[in-house]
Each structure stands twice: as structure tokens, then as C-alpha cells.
Design brief:
single chain, 207 residues, alpha+beta, Uridine Diphospho-n-acetylenolpyruvylglucosamine Reductase, domain 2, 2 domains, two-stranded antiparallel sheet, 6 helices, 5 strands, elongated
């Protein structure tokens, strides 16, 4: 909240100078707290100097290490999303694809792996795993549901289900890497209440 109040000065000064107009720099600013993204159709290093000048003027120092200059076709990360330009076979034109970043995917996979650790939590019931996993799956899905995330959601659901099934096999000292035949996916959803994120449409256990 404080950063938004303070950096509101940056927003006002940027527009006061007319940097967003096409006749000047045609530079659109997207800002969340102190994470600033500047998009422009022009190749002009003066745009960055303008931004740096405004930030310095309100008493802020720019983190040069986190500052990047990229072309949209090369892709870039912002607020956990990866933006990339690519050709769409459906529309037959170049479009922008938005997906979860590799870092964000790795982090949620690690959380699932942690809560389904077959050795660490072998004495706890499956219901305990589900109560820990559901908030993780729901929160992550809600955040990325408006992006091109359906394939990633399916991968995450499959990974979560197999981790739970693998933990149960370990408890019963069953060998093999295939799906545990007495605990298919529908049982995980219906009996134990694991959320089914599917392609981004959340399904809950019927009461």
C-alpha cells in the first residue's frame, strides 16, 4: 500500500510529460507496487532515461540488476507470468501467449512434493495431505486461470494425484510405479475431497 501511494507520483509525472502519447514515446506503463513494466513500439533509449529521471526525482534508486530491455518476441517475465509472442494456427496471425513462469511452476511442484513426502508423513492420513494440498492448488489455479495455463494445470493435477497414490503404495509396501488400482483419480476427488483443477475449472466434492 505504501509503495503504491509513493509511486503514484511516478504515474502522474509520466502522464504529465506525455510519454504515453504516440507522438512522443508511445510508452505504456504497467505497475504493481514497485514492479514497473514499460511497453513501447519505438526503439528509443531516452524512454528509460525519462523513467529513471522521474524515479530519481522522487527520491528512489533504480535496481539496475533487475532492469531488463527485451523485445516482445524474445519473451519476458512479469509478476509470475511469462509473456511471449508466437504464431497461432487458429487465428493464423501473431498473438501474445501468457503462461506461468518456470520459476513459479517449479515452486508449486516443490510444495506438492513436500506435502506428499512418503517417508516424512507416512503416519498421517490421506485427508491430511488433501487439506494441505487443496489451498496450494486452488490459490495457484485462481492466480493463473486467465492465462494460457490449461496444459500446465493438467500436468500439475496429474503430478499431484500420482504423488498421493505413490505415498499410499509406500504405506502398504506395494511395489511398482503404475497407478494404484484401489485409489483411482475419482476416489481422490469424491472420497477424499481433493480438488480437481482440470483445465482451470475447479470441481469440488459433492456434499
Amino acid at each position: 500500500l505504501l509503495s503504491n501511494l509513493y509511486l503514484h507520483q511516478f504515474d502522474e509525472e509520466w502522464h504529465r510529460r506525455g510519454n504515453h502519447y504516440r507522438w512522443r514515446y508511445d510508452a505504456k506503463v504497467t505497475r504493481y507496487a514497485d514492479d514497473i513494466l514499460i511497453q513501447t513500439s519505438k526503439k528509443n533509449t531516452q524512454i528509460w532515461k525519462e523513467a529513471k529521471d522521474i524515479l530519481t526525482g522522487i527520491g528512489l534508486e533504480v535496481n539496475e540488476e533487475k532492469t531488463q530491455f527485451v523485445h516482445a518476441r524474445d519473451g519476458f517475465d512479469y509478476l509470475g507470468f511469462h509473456f511471449d509472442r508466437g504464431y497461432s494456427k487458429r487465428s493464423r496471425k501473431e498473438v501474445t501467449y501468457i503462461v506461468p513462469t518456470h520459476k513459479s511452476r517449479k515452486r508449486v511442484w516443490q510444495k506438492v512434493r513436500c506435502y506428499t513426502n512418503k517417508r516424512k508423513y507416512h503416519n498421517l492420513p490421506i485427508e491430511w495431505m488433501v487439506t494441505k494440498l487443496n489451498p496450494v492448488l486452488l490459490g495457484w489455479t485462481q492466480y493463473y486461470r486467465h492465462a494460457n495455463s490449461s496444459r500446465v494445470f493438467q500436468m500439475l493435477q496429474s503430478y499431484t494425484n500420482k504423488r498421493i497414490q505413490k505415498a499410499l503404495r509406500y504405506r502398504r509396501k506395494e511395489k511398482g510405479v503404475g497407478r494404484y488400482r484401489e485409489l483411482p483419480n475419482r476416489i481422490l476427488y469424491q472420497r477424499y475431497g481433493l480438488v480437481c483443477i482440470g483445465m482451470g475449472l475447479i470441481k469440488y466434492r459433492s456434499s
